[in-house]
Amino acid sequence: MVKVNIQVEEEHWELEVAEGANLLLEAAARSVPIPFRCTTGRCGTCRVQVTAGADQCSDYTELELFHMDGADLASGDRLACQTFVYGDVSIKVP
Ligand code: FES
């Protein structure tokens, strides 16, 4: 199991998820309010910022790279529906 800390404004959640779990699906299953629409990487709605543990996440998908520029990537932005976690991470929802 890995720990996923999620901050949405002033609220925090700490989830324990299986290694390799999808970030958006795990958050949604626990009613963590990450906005989403398509769940397939096309709408860009589920954007989050990985503030710690970026190296514990899956590589960027082509769909993520389509939605983001260099500044977004440097900030650790990800699409939650395209991100799988393999170690402890911290996430901020803008
Ligand atoms: S929910 Fe549409 S890109 Fe993630």
Automatic annotation (TrEMBL):
It comes from the Bacteria. The keyword Oxidoreductase does not apply. Residues 2-94 form the 2Fe-2S ferredoxin-type domain. Pfam families: Fer2. Keywords: FAD, Flavoprotein. PANTHER family: NA(+)-TRANSLOCATING NADH-QUINONE REDUCTASE SUBUNIT (PTHR43644), NAD(P)H-FLAVIN REDUCTASE (PTHR43644:SF1). This is 2Fe-2S iron-sulfur cluster-binding protein. It comes from Laceyella putida. The lineage of its organism: Bacteria, Bacillati, Bacillota, Bacilli, Bacillales.
